[in-house]
Amino acid sequence: MMIYLLFLKPMRKWSIPFAIIATTLLIVLLSDSQASPLPDFDGNGTVDFPDFLLFVGKFGARQGDERYEDRFDLDGNGEVMFPDFLIFVSKFGKTVPLTVEKMNFPLRALHVAGNWGTNATMVREWEAAGSVGRLIPMEYIQWLKGLHVNWVGLSIGLFYDDSLDSTVERNYTRDDATFSDKALRQMIREFKAHGFNVYLTLAFEDYYLPDPSRRAERWLIGNPYGPQWSPDVLPENWPWSLDHPDHERFVAEFWETYTQQAVHFAQIAEDEGAQMYSLGTETDYLFRTRSGDVWPNHFGGEIKSMVDRVRSVYNGLLTYDMHTSVFLWPHDYGPGSDHLWEDLDLDIIGISAYFPITDTAPTSVISVADVQARYNEIFDQYLKPLAERNPTKPILFLEFAAQDDVAAPSLLGYSHFSQYIFTDADRNGLDDGEETQANIYQGLINAINDNPGLVNGAFFFDNWITTEELWAEGWAHHRSLSIKGKLAEEVIRSAYLSYKQASGR
Predict the structure, then answer these.
(1) Other Cβ atoms within 10 Å of 219 Cβ, number
(2) pLDDT for 207
(3) DSSP labels for 411-476?
(4) pLDDT tens per residue across span 185-207
(5) Which residues make Cβ contacts (< 8 Å) with residue 220, sequence separation at least 6?
(6) For residue range 278-321, what is the model confidence (pLDDT) as tens digits?
(7) Helix axes 300-311 and 247-272, enclosed angle (nearest 10)
(8) Neighbours of 171 (CB within 10 A)
(9) Which of 172, 266, 297, 461 could form a disulfide with 401 if both were Cys (CB 3.0 to 4.6 A apart)?
(10) Which residue pairs from 373-379 have beta carbons closer than 8 angstroms and sit at least 24 positions apart in sequence?
(11) Long-range contacts for 248-257 (Cβ within 8 Å, ≥24 apart)?
(12) Higher pLDDT, 175 or 224
């Protein structure tokens, strides 16, 4: 409304009563005006005050005038007048949707993760203080800037009670709870205010029930053969089975409630200017768009409906975060996963990239050269064919992490938070676990550089929002996926600086 008041004074000559103006303005502000282009006149990605000043400079111009430019004529009627101003006000504060063509690859990204660890501590403290003021400590922002990061990822937890629960819900009371809408909006706003692009992903958080007969880990949901693939699960407790008496109702309600949650957070992403949004994380038996030799069913119709409903409220880049397992065991997932990207016309191919580097757990530090060679093999075997089938869709590692443990090459994402005890078996003055983690990151970055344009960046996972004091009090004393304070931190800093210098941004 400040813009309206600033603009009102030079318009006193207008005879339109104030009440009519205010009413008209309110109608425009409340209406859906996504169809017309955003008036980001200075091209900085946001409709903001500099754009307003440019608009004021053209107000009153008509076709044929020297001052007239059609980009300021927002209703296209040949003159820049009050109706154009109302359109401008309705767009004020909005972020111009990012397109693949405008993306600056490779991304310089870190994944903040979800509402756990120090993230949960920061959110609780902010909410306990009345949900006012800064949520993200400035020292964390400065840490990101020191790493030359330009993208951050946030994971939004979704829940279901057990294998018989067909209702996908937000849950604000668990330890790994859903971020409250207010906290999520605040984090996006603060990251955006400091110049970071924001990526959001939905992720089911597992319930590890004491009764294994009703357990439903997220990797298994959607699989009609659940009781065979997870023997503890009883057939009567698995409505995903095609012959279960409650199958049709269960599946319909599950997808409807999931879609409702997807639309809810897509609207937040649109409102706050999050540039990329993922419909799910590592639920690859659920995200299948075709049947096949193994699969008598698929969920193509349900997922396409979700995509359509999300796109009706969200104009940013849409993706899904597919787990490495799909590439390692394609027969177990079938064509419904292989053709997911083209069937849904998603903008980005997202991979939760936990490819094992070794078959067994090493007992000594793996070399950068060995890691690099292995990733080049992975790229040749799995990613180059994927890119050839989807030439217009960039590939991103929406999750990647390796623990600071010499055994990490066999299971990158394993994070048991064991006590940090300095170990230097090779007697080079470096902790063996940190050296392993750093070598894995360097080997991946080298392979990305070996194959320009194939993998367009990686969101390095579990780098939580924290203060230095909070980190030093607890998590600094544990092995984890985070790079904070470790050798891998300098690997990322150096790589991201080189990306930044190469792009000039």
Answers:
(1) 18
(2) 62
(3) -TT----PBP----TT-SSS-HHHHHHHHHHHHHHHHHHHSTTTEEEEEE-------HHHHHHTGG
(4) 999 999 999 999 999 999 999 76
(5) 226, 229, 230, 233, 285
(6) 999 999 999 999 999 899 999 999 999 999 999 999 999 999 99
(7) 20
(8) 16
(9) 461
(10) 374/443, 375/443, 375/444, 375/446, 375/447, 376/447, 376/450, 376/451, 378/447, 379/447, 379/450, 379/451, 379/454, 379/455
(11) 249/166, 250/166, 251/166, 251/299, 251/302, 253/166, 253/167, 254/160, 254/166, 254/167, 254/168, 255/299, 255/302, 255/305, 255/306, 257/166, 257/167, 257/168, 257/169
(12) 224
β partners of residue 281: 321
- Burial (CB < 10 A; 0-12, 13-18, 19+), residue 247, is middle
Report which residue type is found at 35: A
Rounded Cα gap, residues 117 and 101, in angstroms: 36
Place of tokens 């044929």: 64
Angle among Cα 463, 465, 469 to the nearest 5 degrees reads: 105
Phi first, then psi: give them for residue 351, nearest 5 degrees.
-130, 130
Dist. CA 494–CA 491, nearest whole Å:
5
Residue 57 scores a pLDDT above 60: yes
**What's the per-residue H, E or C state across 103-161?**
CCCCCCEEEEECCCHHHHHHHHHHHHCCCCCCCCCHHHHHHHHHCCCCEEEEEEEEECC
Closest CA to 438 of 460, 416, 465: 460
Task: Measure the CA angle with vertex 41, ends 49 and 83; round to 5°.
Answer: 80
Answer whether the bond into residue 106 is a cis peptide, omega within 30°: yes
130 Cβ neighbours under 8 A, 6+ residues apart: none
18 has a pLDDT exceeding 60: no
What pLDDT shows up at residue 45?
72
Are the beta carbons of 298 and 251 closer than 8 angstroms? Answer: no
DSSP 172-197: SSSTTPPPPHHHHHHHHHHHHHTT-E
Query: The tokens of 246 are what?
Result: 């409650």
Query: Cα separation of 307 and 292, whole Å?
Result: 22
Tokens of 477: 């004393």
Tokens encoding 398:
């929406």
